[in-house]
Amino acid sequence: MKLVPSASGDSSILTPLDALTFRLEDLPRQLRRIIDDALQDQGLSRAQWRLLAYVLRQEGLTQTELARHLEIERASAGAAIDALEKRGLIERAQHATDRRVWRIIPTPAAKAMLGSLREVIDEVYAQLFDGFSDGELTQLGQFFERMARNIKA
Length: 153
Known about the structure:
This protein has helices spanning about 15-40, 45-55, 65-70, 75-85, 110-130, 135-150; strands at about 60, 90-95, 100-105. By secondary structure, the protein is mainly α. The protein has a single domain (about 20-150), classed as Arc Repressor Mutant, subunit A (Orthogonal Bundle), CATH 1.10.10. Helix 1 (about 15-40) runs antiparallel to helix 5 (about 110-130), helix 2 packs across helix 4 (about 75-85) and helix 3 (about 65-70) packs across helix 4 (about 75-85). The radius of gyration is 20 Å and the shape is globular.
């Protein structure tokens, strides 16, 4: 697979790398849709699940920190926080040293829900990675990390 056209002037409109890249772009879109569908019975969106997962993993993050972890705008994080707070899954707690900042804390209801959420997400992952060996998953992760480094350079 060539990264650039050959010297002979081969300038195909769609190259094998185009096909690979298009597929790589399609997978996250498909995964978002599948996760949204799977979480529907839980009453959560994929975005809310991701935010809640971070809050459950590290209690007390601020809205700004959550937005940075999720690589979304602060306002989008705020909308997800509002929705989860309305459902009684998280609450805002005053920051110890900065009265302008709120820490985001999971409620007991969120902690109780974690087991069923984990089952739903694990079923999606089982479907996604069906047939992959542990070694292949490790290698895939390494490939993704290399690609991430390549585009940051």
